[in-house]
Amino acid sequence: MTRLEATDVLAGKPSSFDVSRVRLDFPALSQIVNGSPVAYLDNAASTQKPTSVIETVTAAYTFNYSNVHRGVHTLSQRATEAYEGARETARQFLGAPLVEEIVFVRGTTEGINLVAQSYLRPRLEPGDEVLISGLEHHSNIVPWQMVCQQTGANLRVVPINAKGEIDLDAYKDALSRRTRLVAMSHISNALGTVNPVQMIVELAQQRGIPTLIDGAQAAPHLALDVATLGCDFYTVSGHKVFGPTGIGVLYGRLDRLNEMEPYQGGGEMIRSVTFESTEYASPPHKFEAGTPHIAGAIGLGAAMDYLTELGIDTIGAYETDLLRYATQCLGRLPEVRLIGTADDKAAVISFLLEDIHAHDVGTILDQEGIAVRVGHHCAQPVMDYFQVSSTARASFAFYNTAQEVDRLVGGIKNVLEVFGR
Amino acid sequence: MTDLRAIYQELILDHYRKPRNFVALESPTSQARGHNPLCGDRIEVYLMIDAAKIVQDVAFQGAGCAISTASASLMTEVVKGKTLAEARSLFDEFHEMMTGDTAAVPRDLGKLEALSSVRQIPIRVKCATLAWHTLKAALDEDSSQSPSISTES
User: Fold this and answer.
1) With A187 labelled, which of A43, A140, A355, B128 sits at a CA distance of 20 to 30 A?
2) ipTM for the whole complex
């Protein structure tokens, strides 16, 4: 059996992407964990932060900090400029036509809850349907379950196939005159499946059904273009695109945002208030009650700038190579069973190691400084479909290397040895 | 540095591969369900307690990692034949060994001490204690209900 060397993965490639140089941008990656250099393969859970993001957040608090949209003083003006500048950065990053269509939220979860409560809830009647897929993260299940319980509507689930792909025929059949919204992920967090969102959106649009795409896993891997995609809502998390936690973006088409109720009441989201009535601000401020996560938004802007500078397509191509290499390496181990083998996949590998529990796999890998996620990945219905309680998941970012894949393979062999296999 | 070989020692792996008393009792006098939402592990502990308050039989069912399965298996071995008071005292001592301030073992816990190395990985301690918390819930049961416990509660 020929063994693919770690260096092969990059051999013959134009040197447009220098991973060793890129790694220097991430201070967390040069750490020693449990006696070994950390191999951070848990990027689908959260990503490490480049120095430019850390320094931008520090500067936001050190020099330019004040509340936004309020003061006439210089610091408030600087903070407002940086905060609204980040909104423009996010607009470009998502490919949204208008900056008013960019709402800052805490993350994808809040973006979905916002749409469930402010858009969908007033429009749902008993017997109406909300359509999701069997691949969804809990955050794209539970908010819809809640709004269905509140209104008497029904949650319908499009099944997946054995490769972990959405069954498109079943999806077409499930679209009905009672469907009020389609909510699906762009990329599955548990398996890495890239869903055919363009087709999903178009099929819904043909029937006049609005769509929400959960882009939490797509934003770090794919160039986004919500205008071309044509969805009504698209939402991402900052911490998964190398930005701060507690900040994310909800894109909503302006006509949708205009017809929606506010999500929360408070300062910032009003035009005028009396005890009798309140006139709400226009989008996006209508949906940003209270003092926002100012430094987080500014840090997110820096993260998006960083990704744009590297080139999303460049890192996407690198990750595709890395995924192919990792899939080959793990595929050679007879004890490994890959869960999720979609034709179109992002750099995520979910796997089982014989009957060894994923938590034991995770603990033993951690002793070599290899960080993987083990468990149900907040996607228990996906685990149920494959009839497993949990998997180990290695999820890659552009700063991961073929050498780290080799270490993962070595770590897996060590797990087998510890278990006497 | 964590000693993996101590955590995954032969005794643990043996009880993981061949769990003892791994069966659902037909008509237990009490039973309880345990759940670790962190990993999804579930366990059911069954007790047969006689009039003299002696644990005549104890068994478990469920799916879990090596540590939780071995801990449950070892637990059933040591608890069988004990009085209710002794079983409760074993819970306290095991709990102290796994979570107490010092690594000092309160008294000779025999083969249960094989699990003490798990202390080195705090996030996995709950794997070792899940079966015991479930046992305690079954011991405390007033026979009118089947309690559930969760490691995250």
Assistant:
1) A355
2) 0.85
